[in-house]
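Continuing the batch. This is chain 6 of the set; chains 1 through 5 are on the previous pages. Same settings as before, nothing changed between runs. Recording input and output for traceability.
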Amino acid sequence: MQKRYLLAPGPTQIPPEVLLKMAEPILHHRNPMFEEIVAEVREDLKWLFGTKNEVLFFASSGTGAMEGAVTNMLSPNDKAIVVRSGKFGDRWANICKAYGIQTVEINVPWGDEIDPALVEKALKENPDTKAVYTHATETSTGVRYPVREIATIVKNYPNTICVIDGITGVGVFELPMDEWGIDILVAGSQKAFMLPPGLAFAGVSDKAWAMNKTSKMPRFYFNWTKELTNLQKNQTNFTPAISLIVGLRESLRMMKEEGLEKIYKRAEILARATREGAIALGLKPFAKNPSPAVTAIYAPEGIDGQAIYKSLWKKYGVTGAGGQDHLKGKIFRIATLGYADKYDVVTAMAALEFTLKDLGHKFKMGSGVGRALEVLQEL
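Output for chain 6:
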């Protein structure tokens, strides 16, 4: 028998309490009992996103909300600034191009920090820009973006909205929409929400709703105006992912019980323990400004990063993630978001030591686990 541990940056582990709620007999989505659940979820999502406005949700992956953040705000031939510094920065650019948006791309080497001054420069050179699309965390590289600084810059442009992919950020670290001036904040259920894939979220500011009124992009399923109208009646525009929303009520309840401050602190310490444990093994973290959601680590010289990733799950039961695109074989990733605790980090570090020993990397056994334990004492 082999016990398995899910430590990927999505899907993530699901608490038993949430699984049990989702296993209950299904409700009809036009039933008053379901409307009560939606009413509760609406308020708790506002709390999590740090906004007074409604947070829309859809039966979709997070990419659906990303697409909607383009089609519900812009018109053909509008101009948008896109920060490209990884797989999902590329996705923003690809969505914009698919809908005929003129993209001004800020290309940053994968793993590097993003200088907010580059966004300001691009806005000054392109004052007709309608939206800036960027991230809270670039999941493919483990980089945390300076969201507050970027939002502060965009706030000075009354006809430009700041759109943040917070899919691997919401519920991991601070991203208060209203306080920071984030106009659209996107999230997905399979990350810190501690749910299976299938729900996408979008918090929308008053500034973004004003832009929505002038948008001429075609849309049908991801029609945010219709979704808002239905949500305010505790309903959804189309048939929702009922069981996921039932589970969402429970996961949000658990998050409120722990409190955001403790959640954020836990993620920070778990990620730091992962990084410092890896360093103790002679490895090097990839991101210049690392995110608490996921740690990307360089593979040792002469060892394939994909071999590390595959050995972790095949032989030792720990599912992390490999590198993507040109980073495939060069890095591997371990996540510390959602339903993760100190013992997950210890397990991951122990499995990593076994794997590296198998692959011929030279280090003192126990050094990674030992350093991780020292950091984890702070929890």
